[in-house]
Amino acid sequence: MFDKVLIANRGEIALRIQRACKELGISTVAVHSTADADAMHVRLADESVCIGPPSPTESYLNIPRLLAACEITGADAVHPGYGFLSENARFAEILEEHKITFIGPTSEHIRLMGDKITAKDTVKKLGIPVVPGSDGGVANEAEALACAKEMGFPVLVKAASGGGGRGMKLAETEADLAEAMANAKSEAMSSFGDDAIYIEKYLTKPRHIEFQVFGDGRGNAVHLGERDCSLQRRHQKILEEAPSPALNDEARNRVGEVVAKAMRDLNYRGAGTIEFLYEDGEFFFIEMNTRLQVEHPVTEAITGIDLVLEQIRVAAGAQLSFQQEDITFSGHAIECRINAENAKTFRPSPGLITYWHPPGGLSVRVDSGVYQGYRIPPYYDSLIGKLIVHGKTRNECMMRLRRSLSEFVIDGIDTTIPLFSELISQPDIVNGLYDIHWLEKYLAKSES
């Protein structure tokens, strides 16, 4: 097992990783920008190192400074969390070159799945169905148009190195294609330094369903069921639940075994998520995330498995502590992403938290790195916490979520708590009858 883990992240995920390390008896190192000097994960870590000014490129994305922090503190492993460098293959390689373990997949697998075109080709060979689209990238408008006409409009123009909804543009008709391509290429270059794009069929009423997978790099791999992440705004998830109200056991087991077998064939190590669009009983692969997901707690709630602790164990060379037959699903869990944003305009709301009262009670979990008197900096993602509730049934879970949201008080800033209180009273949400376009349509109606 590791002696000391450096956590190359911030906020609630840094604190989440720190807790898992503590339970394994591992010392922790928190890195932070000058803006995060008072963050909770910094206060609770065994050691902390300031790695630069607020800008992520000069701190959390600065590999030489992170490497220096490892050397100064003697950390023998790094957990990247999610975002920042969590899917940076070169970062993983550099750490390994310096005899420091990257707590995650191999750099080869990160690189393989990081390029969406290569990832689609790979999973097709592994037997996973994919969304109809171009065979590789499209070099020009004529090539894109030929592909789009063959599939039929509407289509999505997507960045090959994309993620988080960036570099993704909709072309509803032939007349929209040129502008969608130009915008996608521009956004992809500015976000990922790569303007390669490809074309994919636009499904009209799909759900976003993802399967949690886990491997130990020794040929053992399992799935831990699915999460439904269909409530999205601008292609970004805001609420996730497990299991999906749209799936039955037959579909869950069928697709779960397909993805688990694919991970065994790849000899995959660590946590990963296979993301699908699901429509009319059919699954279509869209991407694989080779890291921990923001929404991992809902899987933990229904399986009782600590995914972060297992990440650390496997990275240290241990075999998976469970097999597929050991995994059982109990009840229902929902996660709400609490953002420091105005619930109507979604404008970011950094500032001082003057009062903080999270909900409690049976099967209620709040993952957050903030506290009363903490000042949310304006430089990073607006996620400040996650409310996760669990119930024996989906209805019990919804009732518990309604009660928990009513108890959650955050003063001094705007948050998205009022939005969730509103959403969970909508019949479509109560009955689980929503798709990835539902929230955008609902918000558009609310504004009119």
Observed structural traits:
single chain, 448 residues, alpha+beta, Rossmann fold, Dna Ligase, domain 1, D-amino Acid Aminotransferase, Chain A, domain 1, 3 domains, eight-stranded antiparallel beta sheet, five-stranded parallel beta sheet, 15 helices, 20 strands
Secondary structure layout:
Layout: E1 4-7, H1 11-23, E2 27-33, H2 40-44, E3 47-52, H3 63-73, E4 77-79, H4 89-97, E5 101-102, H5 107-114, H6 116-125, H7 141-151, E6 155-163, E7 166-171, H8 177-192, E8 197-201, E9 207-216, E10 221-233, E11 236-242, H9 249-266, E12 269-279, E13 282-289, H10 296-303, H11 307-315, E14 332-339, E15 351-352, E16 355-357, E17 364-368, E18 375-376, E19 383-391, H12 394-407, E20 409-411, H13 417-423, H14 427-430, H15 438-447
Parallel strand pairs: 1-2, 1-4, 2-3, 4-5
Antiparallel strand pairs: 6-7, 6-8, 9-10, 9-12, 10-11, 11-14, 12-13, 14-19, 15-18, 16-20, 17-19
Helix pairs in contact: 4-5
Explain what the structure shows.
By secondary structure, this protein is α+β, with helices and mostly antiparallel strands. It folds into three domains: 4-103, Rossmann fold; 132-201, Dna Ligase, domain 1; 207-447, 2-Layer Sandwich (D-amino Acid Aminotransferase, Chain A, domain 1), CATH 3.30.470.20. The chain is 34% helix and 27% strand. The chain contains 15 helices and 20 strands. The strands form five sheets. The protein has an eight-stranded antiparallel β-sheet with strand order 13-12-9-10-11-14-19-17, sandwiched between helices. It is globular, with a radius of gyration of 21 Å.
